[in-house]
Amino acid sequence: MESSGITFLLLFFANLLVLGASSSQDHNKHFLQCLTEQFEGSNSDPSNVIYTPNDAAYESLLITQNRRPESTFPLRPLLIITPYYEREIIAVIYCSKKLGTQITVRSGGHDYEGLSYTSEVPFVILDMRNFRSISVNTKDRTAWVEVGATLGQLYYTIARHSKTLAFTAGVCPTVGVGGHISGGGYGMMSRKHSLAADHVIDAKVMNVDGQILDRRSMGEDLFWAIRGGGGASFGIVLAFKLELITIPEKVTVFNVSRTQEHNATHLVHRWQYVADKIDDNLLLRLFLRSVKSPVHGNRTIQASFTSLYLGRVHHLLPIMQEKFPELGLVEDDCTEMSWIESILYFAGVRNESLDVLLDRNPARRPYFKGKSDYVRQPIPINALNGIWKFLHEQPEIKAELEASPYGGVLSSYSKSETPFPHRAGNIFMIHYGIAWNNPGKSELESHMNWIRRLYSYMAPYVSKNPRAVYFNYRDLDLGINNEGNTSYKQASVWGLKYFENNFHRLVHVKTKVDPSNFFRNKQSIPPLLSE
Ligand SMILES: Cc1cc2nc3c(=O)[nH]c(=O)nc-3n(C[C@H](O)[C@H](O)[C@H](O)COP(=O)(O)OP(=O)(O)OC[C@H]3O[C@@H](n4cnc5c(N)ncnc54)[C@H](O)[C@@H]3O)c2cc1C
Ligand SMILES: *[C@@H]1O[C@H](CO)[C@@H](O)[C@H](O)[C@H]1NC(C)=O
Ligand SMILES: *[C@@H]1O[C@H](CO)[C@@H](O)[C@H](O)[C@H]1NC(C)=O
Ligand SMILES: *[C@@H]1O[C@H](CO)[C@@H](O)[C@H](O)[C@H]1NC(C)=O
Ligand SMILES: *[C@@H]1O[C@H](CO)[C@@H](O)[C@H](O)[C@H]1NC(C)=O
Ligand SMILES: *[C@@H]1O[C@H](CO)[C@@H](O)[C@H](O)[C@H]1NC(C)=O
Questions:
Q1: Is the CB of 351 under 6 A from ligand 5?
Q2: Cβ neighbours of residue 20 closer than 8 Å, sequence gap 6 or more
Q3: Closest CA to ligand 3's atom 13
Q4: Does pLDDT of 4 surpass 60?
Q5: What number does CATH give the domain 134-246?
Q6: Looking at residue 364, what is its pLDDT?
Q7: Residue 443: which of 72, 109, 64, 65 has the closest Cα?
Q8: Using 50, 70 and 90 to split pLDDT, how confident is the model at 70?
């Protein structure tokens, strides 16, 4: 039975080669047939796992996190596959190889350029949503978490087990563990506890041969690569083992906003001399937007200092008084709460039950483009005024700059300890974001144009040689792999910006674990042999 199925496939594959291109409908049928055959004799139920464009659920599975208008997607996936078992993933790899189809792996679907659910060549989506179990070991202070879990689910589960254990990772609860942790993972505790990837102590990865490896069997090279270099170039990450961190039972939050009428520009300028040096327990994140002034009705800049202190308010106030008195923080601005409540607070959820952290699908988001930069010298006041002009060009709230302070424990890692190189010497990271609702082509172009102009305006004030970029804020403007030509030279243009010299070691690991470049996308690490 098995071997006749394979013979059939081989014949079929030969046929495809002879005919050159087959229609995508045919391709779809063949992939479906291949998978169905692979599932035969197991207790897998294809109707719970495989979704074709004819299934009602296909559409809703596809659109969870569109960053771009769908009209700009070159192709739709042949199938969306939501496996429950490892052997189903092995079958997907098998059929992809046989039919020359690409796989995009999706955990939470938040990729900034949609690389987990779009492609320019025929592809299937391997959606890991059903791999989402979490087991917390409070004695060891560790947790195994499967990649399809969201950060919200992870935080919720840890908090159910303990009041003083936590994990350091991103702010948005619907972000997926798979993409986030393999790409770094910065959050409100990162000055004290560094990145999510810095607390991975073991992992389960399926390689190109369908073998499941743990830290010991994959070796330290691959284990290094998936802690900041992303997963998508190397295999399919199934789970991470995390070292949990210890937090106080009460933390303090505040979100103080000042407009230009209340000296916002000077405060932002001053913040740059404070944010990376202040007490590690304190993270003062800064959001900048153009809003209508309540004073004169014209547009003004609103600076929000959105902050977490890992301790009580009576310890926080003297620190602020000594290091950043200009902000004028008072006790009334501050709220003490548990760490898990602070997760809701920073997610912008007020007075709801913790269960909202288990929602995987946020309301459909508007279209979006983001970019990032690293700042090593304070930006002068006149340049800040130039940024304000860019923000005023856009409708209120649609454009936002986020400044995330570094320093603290982030600086105590060497640049090559993990693939994430943005360590000592960085004051903060800037995230530029623009959101819009209209799917039209001219809207897309004008928003892209705006953010690219801003990015080019910023060049003199940010890191250089390379101009560093955070990998989890993926940006295809930096360069892409042309299909059929993933050259090392071409990839190093963007690779050095994300990873600096760690890029070379990532290429080395890729060459070792996936020399045929089976796991690839527009910005995946190329193997050396393909040069
Ligand atoms: C609203 C929003 C808020 C964010 N907030 C933060 C934040 O506070 N801090 C921060 O650091 N980042 C933040 N990010 C960025 C986020 O960390 C990245 O977009 C991350 O890659 C998303 O992971 P995901 O699993 O949701 O995405 P996906 O789109 O599923 O995956 C992202 C990439 O990883 C690959 N991948 C996913 N799962 C696997 C797997 N199991 N094995 C191999 N490869 C895999 C995908 O193929 C894709 O290339 C935010 C993003 C958004 C959209
Ligand atoms: C604004 O901040 C600057 C720098 O801290 C300070 O010199 C100035 O007096 C402040 N102005 C007002 C109106 O508070
Ligand atoms: C508001 O903006 C208009 C147009 O630029 C300007 O003429 C006016 O003086 C501004 N008003 C205030 C109070 O700043
Ligand atoms: C902080 O305040 C600003 C301005 O009011 C608001 O837009 C933002 O959502 C607030 N952030 C949080 C986390 O509450
Ligand atoms: C949350 O609930 C408390 C108590 O009911 C109330 O005092 C507070 O104003 C509420 N906060 C918000 C933001 O709704
Ligand atoms: C691949 O890209 C490199 C760098 O852009 C270029 O020099 C080379 O000619 C390309 N090779 C092919 C086969 O297109």
A1: yes
A2: none
A3: 296
A4: no
A5: 3.30.465.10
A6: 65
A7: 72
A8: confident
- Answer whether the bond into residue 366 is a cis peptide, omega within 30°: no
Whether residue 335 has its Cβ less than 6 Å from ligand 4: no
What's the CATH class of domain 2-125?
Answer: alpha beta
Specify the length of the chain in residues: 531
- Residue 287 CA to residue 401 CA, distance in Å, equals 6
Q: Give residue 110 CA to ligand 1 midpoint distance, Å.
A: 5
Report the side by side order of strands in the sheet with 80-81.
50-51, 80-81, 123-127, 102-106
User: With contact defined as beta carbons under 8 Å apart, do 238 and 207 qualify?
Assistant: no
pLDDT: which is higher, 156 or 2: 156
Q: What pLDDT is recorded for position 484?
A: 61
Strands (DSSP E) along 269-345, which ranges? 282-292, 299-309, 335-337
Transcribe 501-525 into DSSP letters. Answer: THHHHHHHHHHHH-TT--S--TTPP
Q: What tokens were used for 46?
A: 């294809």
Count other Cβ atoms within 10 Å, centred on residue 59.
12
Q: What's the gap in Å between 506 CA and the centre of ligand 6? A: 21
What residues pair up with 106 in beta bridges, in sequence order? 127
pLDDT digits (tens, 9 = 90+) for 331-377: 999 999 999 999 999 999 887 899 999 998 766 678 999 999 999 99
**pLDDT at position 2 over 70:** no
Instruction: Provide the pLDDT for residue 20.
Output: 42
Higher pLDDT, 351 or 78: 78
Please state whether beta strands 80-81 and 123-127 pair in parallel, antiparallel, or not at all (unpaired).
Answer: parallel
CA 81/CA 32 separation, integer angstroms: 10
pLDDT in tens, 484-501: 666 888 899 999 999 999
Tell me what the mean pLDDT of segment 386-392 comes to. Answer: 98
CATH topology of domain 251-335+363-461: Vanillyl-alcohol Oxidase; Chain A, domain 3 (3.40.462)
pLDDT at 9: 40
Angstrom distance (rounded) from CA 373 to CA 470 = 7
For residue 296 and ligand 3, the question of a CB distance below 6 A is answered with: yes
Instruction: Indicate the average pLDDT of the chain.
Output: 92
pLDDT at 279 over 50: yes
The tokens for 524 are 């995946």
Catalytic site residues? 473
Spatial distance between the Cα atoms of 192 and 529, rounded to a whole number of angstroms: 41
pLDDT at 18: 36
Q: How far is CA 362 from CA 69, 71, 175, in A?
A: 17, 22, 10
The secondary structure of residue 496, as a DSSP letter, is H
| Tokens standing for residue 495 | 């690779």
Query: How far is the CA of 251 from the CAs of 39, 254, 307, 410, in angstroms?
Result: 50, 10, 11, 20
Give me ligand 4 centre to Cα 304, in Å: 7
Whole-angstrom CA distances from 303 to 122, 218, 222, 271, 318 are 45, 46, 41, 11, 22
Give the mean pLDDT of 253-265: 97
Domains of the chain, by residue range, sit at 2-125, 134-246, 251-335+363-461, 476-530
